[in-house]
Request: fold
Amino acid sequence: QINYIIGCDAHKHYSQFAVYEGDQTRGKQVRVEHERGAIREFLSQFPEDTPVALESIGNWYWIVDEIEQAGCQALLAHAAKAKVMMGNVNKTDKLDARGLAMLLRNGTLPTVWIAPSQVRDERELPRTRMALCKIRVALKNRIHATLAKYNLLLPTESDIFAPKWSSQLNEVIEQLPSETQKCLQQELELLEDVQRQIQAMEERMKECISLTPDMQLLKTVPGVGDILAIVIGTEIGRIERFASAEQLASYAGTVPAVKSSGGKTRYGHTPKESNHYLKWAFVEAANGPAQYRQKPRWQHRHVTHLYERVSLRKGHSVAVGAVARHLAEATFWILNKKEPYHEPIHQKVLPKQA
Reply:
């Protein structure tokens, strides 16, 4: 049986395939238009389990589905790393497809995990909720900014959009100029609609995504409830794909960039190239100690002490990042050992013997 390797440079309207048979040095280039079933039909001529290398672009879901339906093996490549490893001076569709095929042949293709189709479908619920939450925050910030323009404030530091403050908020809005007042009322109505959509989405998440034993363990992590457990569980997938706690923390974007040279080390911001949804979940959980550290159930927890210690030296943002990294690393051990979260045991340092 002849062995094939295939590289696929996918675009919005078409995909360019580079097909290599056996040890051929010159392969065949084929362009396939993006019509439903076209990629499946093209790949069905090759033997079962033929590897197909594909870059992780925005519309890879359906392409991977068609590759698998054709009986081939889809391999998703890290786009940025693959580009560096190919080392092409020029950039064309044919060169990119050929480069992916060569990396596949050499065994150096930087692959990423392909979540099963059911997991990809379930992920859309928490990801859509996150998008709606961003809209909610943007509306609240806009209302706050409008009130600040006219030096109008409510006598509270808590959430002014809570039901108990609705009457006072309406009284404050009535002090605004007529057109500004109408605009603010529309924004409040839109905020209520978005809030209803978020609540409906959360109910849907709890109905469709059953809390697995791993997710139940994740709820023992400080600051993690049902929603964050679902986000973390669906985004991580199989914990076996991470070799260490540091690797999971890096994947979640909670490890700061390091630049070390000539004996000098500088720690920068957390990287943008990460799983944004997982990063958001851990940062959201890490804000718990910052917000509730005065409450009795939080006062003596490790995450609270960690936040307070770092915030004194580095400020709020860095402290939240440090807590988020601790939670990410703790998650690795929780899922690996199948044990709930335990407070770290601090060993006392004995004085040196004379």
Observations:
- The CA atoms of residues 83 and 91 lie 10 Å apart.
